[in-house]
């Protein structure tokens, strides 16, 4: 703070106060009430500027209540709704919760909902308000809404990264036939264990420091020979021999157990990529190419 001028300090504090005030007004009476209050206090131009900033960052309080509802109870209700309504609700939820719900839907509905989320760009506050009114009358104000930008391909990719493999294959498999371009966009944002083939040798070696050897053996037992060799060639002879021996004497494994282990390793890969410690070939465009 010593290198920041008094003028900048005051401007930052003023902006912080205005944003906090806008949040308070929205919580008290919604966007319209906040707009009227801010216009009266700060003028129409300043009020518009503040509300635009706030609306880009907040999620509607009513839709946040979705996170507190048991997905099993929620799916019993929303599976009777139109796919467009379901897609709006899931787009407002955390990917893990949305994944639990979309996995429980009929297969054809899964595809329809995933497509609608992926192609969704913006929803007007008026439309969300209409949805809110219908849902409030049926589920005692568990839902609400005033968010204008939701959904998108990234939202579907995040949901599909959390669903079981069967649901993922159903949705992506059908999308590849019905809308191959959309399926390709979604898959570009997803990462599965077999995609570890995209890691360079240095990244594999970095990854090996973060994962348990026994878990790696389980994960590789359910993978392709190409991926097995990818990992084993980046280990010492002794370590690779131990992995091969473990895989040989491991016996039959439940697919669910293997996929759970693979998912944990994928989570480590994503974390290391986010931290910039490993490189995944073909992701992020030319700017991320290492030479």
Gyration radius, to the nearest Å?
24 Å
Instruction: Give the uncertain stretches in residue-range form.
Output: 141-149, 283-291
Please name the fourth-level CATH homologous superfamily of the largest domain. Flagellar motor switch protein FliG, alpha-alpha superhelical domain
Class inferred from helices and paired strands: mainly alpha
The mean pLDDT is 77
Give your account of this protein's structure.
The chain has helices spanning 6-42, 44-57, 61-64, 71-78, 83-91, 95-104, 107-118, 125-139, 153-160, 165-178, 180-188, 201-208, 213-221, 225-232, 237-249, 255-274. It has 291 residues and is mostly helical. It has three domains: 6-58, no CATH class; 62-188, Flagellar motor switch protein FliG, alpha-alpha superhelical domain (Annexin V, domain 1), CATH 1.10.220; 193-288, Annexin V, domain 1 (Orthogonal Bundle), CATH 1.10.220. The longest helix has 37 residues, at 6-42.
Distinctive features:
291 residues; mainly alpha; Annexin V, domain 1; 3 domains; 16 helices; 68% helix; 0% strand; disordered C terminus
What's the short version?
This protein has 291 residues and is mostly helical.
């Amino acid at each position: 703070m010593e290198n920041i001028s008094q003028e900048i300090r005051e401007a930052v504090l003023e902006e912080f106060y205005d944003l906090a005030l806008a949040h308070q007004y929205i919580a008290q009476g919604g966007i319209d009430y906040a707009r009227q209050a801010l216009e009266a206090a700060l003028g129409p131009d300043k009020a518009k500027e503040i509300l635009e900033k706030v609306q880009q960052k907040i999620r509607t309080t009513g839709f946040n209540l979705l996170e507190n509802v048991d997905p099993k109870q929620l799916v019993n209700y929303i599976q009777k709704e139109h796919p467009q309504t379901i897609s709006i609700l899931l787009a407002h939820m955390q990917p893990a919760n949305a994944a639990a719900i979309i996995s429980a839907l009929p297969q054809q509905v899964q595809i329809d909902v995933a497509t609608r989320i992926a192609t969704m760009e913006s929803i007007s506050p008026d439309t969300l308000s209409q949805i809110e009114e219908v849902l409030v009358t049926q589920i005692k104000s568990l839902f609400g809404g005033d968010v204008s930008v939701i959904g998108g391909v990234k939202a579907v990719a995040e949901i599909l990264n959390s669903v079981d493999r069967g649901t993922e294959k159903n949705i992506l498999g059908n999308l590849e036939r019905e809308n191959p371009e959309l399926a390709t966009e979604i898959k570009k944002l997803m990462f599965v264990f077999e995609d570890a083939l995209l890691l360079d040798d240095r990244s594999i070696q970095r990854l090996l420091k973060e994962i348990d050897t026994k878990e790696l053996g389980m994960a590789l037992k359910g993978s392709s020979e190409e991926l097995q060799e990818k990992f084993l060639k980046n280990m010492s002879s002794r370590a690779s021999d131990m992995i091969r021996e473990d895989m040989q004497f491991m016996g039959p494994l439940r697919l669910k157990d293997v996929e759970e282990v693979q998912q944990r390793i994928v989570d480590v890969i994503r974390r290391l990529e986010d931290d910039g410690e490993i490189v995944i070939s073909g992701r992020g465009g030319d700017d991320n190419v290492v030479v």
